[in-house]
Amino acid sequence: MKQIIFAISMLFLVSGCVTRKIPIMPEAKVISPISEMAAHKLNCEIVDTYVLEKSHPNNVLPVLKNQTFLLGGNRYRVSSVLSERRGKPTSVVAEIYSCPNPYEIKPAGRVNLLPGAHDVKPITFSEIENTDCKVLTSHVVDKTNPDNIYIELSNEVFMRGGNRYHITKIIDTDGANPTSLAADIYRCKHQSVDFH
């Protein structure tokens, strides 16, 4: 009898509990959520309302991204959660938005990290205690795509002879990610620490 229960348990583990994962279409990977305030601030137009019912919690995000793209939108906002499973939504009502691109289009397109700028990092409290750091200047990264903001900051720190930065103010966001910020640029020289 124990062998039968064990075999049935293994069968459920192998086959019965697997839900097919819905892939995100390549064109929909750039679609992201937006808050109601950000949608108003960016002058977004509501394209449609979409109701997703009885989905696996892991498939809610891919379905919303894909459906937003198919309906001609570029952002979405979950306006209400209809049902949940283990604290994760399974049925939702989402507003689909079309938002203008608020970012300046750079002549070179996507910003690339300069050779040497890959060592530029945010400054940590332990580095301040164990290194000799000097503030070189402050810099403001103008409004740009959130994917480029830290690359632009790292490039600027490197070009000014620094190797660390400390963000002092987030000036603007897209509702979730910074799009403009101010930072202090540091040049830190590592000191050896004697732990004896």
UniProtKB/TrEMBL annotation:
It comes from Aliivibrio fischeri. This is DUF1471 domain-containing protein. It comes from the Bacteria. The lineage of its organism: Bacteria, Pseudomonadati, Pseudomonadota, Gammaproteobacteria, Vibrionales.
